[in-house]
């Protein structure tokens, strides 16, 4: 069963819950508490953490209550059920919700990342690399139907590789166990997130040879999402939220990777600041961090193309239905 059907079945139940749930805010008259459910904890989200660490949300009168959901379905569950006011998650989840004819759809109002965040890592050091090198190999991919795997397959096809016939594709390993599986000898190539890709390269376990983010182009990979009712009823709060985020985006764009790493290191227990700096530099160099909160229409179209190609697009949805740039545009005036 396509992942969108499984996700849609879950969201259908959640929509019933969400219909009777109301978003609430705490704090004093001068400060609003905004509950944010992030899909995971990742250096990929550095501009957001930098905005927190630099006090930009405080400056806007916002106290964040940040929880890590560890999964796109869980992050969206928190939003739809009223357990979060804002969700940091992939834009594809809004399409799954919309496909269930939601009366209060989830809408992306601010961009955070604008490319895929995974890298192709080879076991052997290659003096030169061609995508043809993957033919006949064993490729350790990501979970079927997830955005990383959809992007991975899109990039392989773009480069003339049939992922289901030209190589042995392994998708049966849990996300958290993929790095250890590769380290223990499974696969000739693996698709990895950071900081694991850079860590493996530093330790000589593998070698980064290509970026799926660079190859796949601009995609609204992760952004801030709220229910339409929140956009209608509390745009002023979301404007302050987005202004704080934009300050963080601009700060990260202007600072050296080492300074960014120092600012966000407390968000990553047991991760050396030097490794964080390496990852920030790599993401910055390939343009993964959105430098403004505006989600571009071209990126939205590319997202749906990737989903459709993977057989995971329940229906095509116009950009202006599930993307609201009005707040971001106002912040940037």
Automatic annotation (TrEMBL):
Chief localisation class: periplasm
Question: Locate the SsuA/THI5-like domain: which residues?
Answer: 46-258
Give compartment(s): Periplasm
Got a GO cellular component term for this one? periplasmic space
Question: Span of the secretion signal?
Answer: 1-22
Which SUPFAM superfamilies does the UniProt record give? Periplasmic binding protein-like II
Keywords, ordered alphabetically? Signal
Does Signal show up as a keyword for this record?
yes
Q: By its UniProt entry, which PROSITE patterns does this protein fall under?
A: PROKAR_LIPOPROTEIN (PS51257)
Instruction: Give the similarity note.
Output: Belongs to the bacterial solute-binding protein SsuA/TauA family.
Protein name, please?
Answer: ABC transporter substrate-binding protein
